[in-house]
Q: What sequence folds into this?
C-alpha cells in the first residue's frame, strides 16, 4: 500500500463485500468501489441501495477531504443496534471522484463483521481512518501510534 497513489485513486473491483451488525447481514453486494491512497489500507464504498432498509440513517456532522470533497455521516443500524456516525459518503464528490456518489463507506471497527471475498477484515488502526486490512495489504498503516506526521 505504500505504492498506492496520492492523490487517491477510485477503482471498481470484482469483489463481494458483506457487513454484519447485531447479528444481521445489512450488506451483501458485488457492486464495490474502493479508494487507494498512500499509507492507507483500501476504503470500500458500497451503494446506498445495497444496504438493508433502515440500515443507513442520516447523522449530524460533516468533514472535508481535499480530494473527494465534503463528506456527510450516517448512523448504521442492524439487529437492534445503532452505531452512531459509523459510515460516511460524498454526496457531491469533486471532479475525479464522481464514482463515490450514492455510495457509503463503513468503519469496520463499529460492525460485528465485514468481509471482502469471504475474508474477515481488520479495521485500520486508530480511531479516525476507515480502511479495511486484508491479508493482501501490507503495513505499517497510517493510524498507528506516531503516524500522524506521515
A:
Amino acid at each position: 500500500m505504500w505504492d498506492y497513489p496520492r492523490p487517491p485513486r477510485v477503482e471498481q473491483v470484482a469483489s463481494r463485500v458483506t457487513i454484519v451488525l447485531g447479528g444481521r447481514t445489512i450488506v451483501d453486494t458485488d457492486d464495490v468501489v474502493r479508494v487507494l491512497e498512500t499509507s492507507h489500507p483500501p476504503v470500500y464504498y458500497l451503494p446506498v441501495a445495497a444496504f438493508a432498509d433502515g440500515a443507513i440513517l442520516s447523522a449530524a456532522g460533516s468533514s472535508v477531504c481535499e480530494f473527494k470533497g465534503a463528506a456527510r455521516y450516517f448512523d448504521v443500524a442492524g439487529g437492534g443496534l445503532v452505531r452512531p456516525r459509523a459510515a460516511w459518503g460524498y454526496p457531491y464528490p469533486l471532479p475525479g471522484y464522481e464514482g463515490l456518489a450514492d455510495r457509503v463507506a463503513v468503519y469496520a471497527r463499529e460492525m460485528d463483521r465485514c468481509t471482502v471475498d469471504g475474508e474477515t477484515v481488520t479495521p485500520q488502526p486508530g480511531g479516525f481512518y476507515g480502511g479495511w486490512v486484508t491479508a493482501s495489504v501490507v503495513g505499517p498503516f497510517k493510524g498507528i501510534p506516531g503516524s500522524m506526521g506521515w
